[in-house]
Design brief:
mainly beta; three-stranded antiparallel beta sheet; 7 strands; single chain; 128 residues; 1 helix
Amino acid sequence: METLEDRRLLAAPEFLPGVVTGDVERSDLTEPSGMIASRTNDGVLWTHNDSGDGPNFYAMSTSGADLGRYTLVGGESYDWEDMASGPGLLAGVEYLYAGNIGDSNGTVYVLRVAEPVVDAAQQTPAPK
């Protein structure tokens, strides 16, 4: 018979030690908050700044190389805390989601935008 202790052991697995794969190149990523692996673009990670940056998503390689800043035209960013990716309105299209869910002066929302195509080899010069 399974015991409560058996369940606790199954619910809290151990992870192998993490591996640093690189350093983030962009100096304007001062407070990254949330990071996801692209579901559309191989080798691409997405992130954003926590607050004070504007409606920008940043693409980077898994080694931290800058792949560009993507500004959401007409979008707003008060305090994006996290992001996710997944399906949306159109079948076969992957979307990026940002949650304005932090200390956002009562304005709480989820923003959805179709994920842009990014080439993991398109490195751009990082801002200084």
